Amino acid sequence: MIEVKELRRSFGPVVAVDGISFSVEKGQVLGLLGPNGAGKSTAMRMLACFLRPDSGTATICGYDIQQNPIEIRKSIGYLAENVPAYNEMTVGSFLDFVCDAREIKGKARKKALDRIVPMCSIESVYHQTIETLSKGYKRRVGLAQALIHDPGVLILDEPTDGLDPNQKHEIRKLINKMAKDKCIIISTHILEEVEAVCSRTIIIAKGKILVDSTPEELKEKYQCSLDAVFRRITKNGKQLNGE
After folding, report:
1. Which has the least CB within 10 A, 15, 28, 42, 220?
2. Which residues, 6 or more positions from 193, have their beta carbon under 8 angstroms from its beta carbon?
3. Does 11 have pLDDT greater than 50?
């Protein structure tokens, strides 16, 4: 459902994403794993059509990110690293606004809200303004807006950032529940999260893909924990295919 080909993006002299290629199918949860500044968020912003690539391209659900950005935005759910929201709105009015933008009306809107509010555990803050919410609740509201139209493709940038351990557990359970019916990309630097939800892992550093494998295969190949594998690969900064 997602096909990425030689995607590249620079900011002045800094190459943030350097010719990456990969594909993700329905039923897969791909973890984009890397140190801070590796290029994960930039790659996801390009896939979500918030940034144009300098070169290369990608297709999502058959649509090209440069030629069909509107269709892609309709097809995906995107949780940004820093979720944009209107602080003066209540959670309920913000989700109504998202429904308006996505043309979810009438009975379909009620059904969507009845599904997503308990799913993201935001009942208790539904009538609060967003500016009064903790970081964890803001994250959950951001997740709710990404899921409200039940998209087939999810692009989630640090989905559990700011959540306490119990909240992280619930969000990971939710991702695992959705995984069989959706194509999901998750950006994270939390190795525990990769092992909990990802069926496949790409390790990226300095804008380049160093490894494309599964957490289990990596631990088996290098005979060590995923944490040790990550340190070894990102410290060397070299592609280790066939090593």
Report:
1. 220
2. 31, 160, 168, 172, 186
3. yes
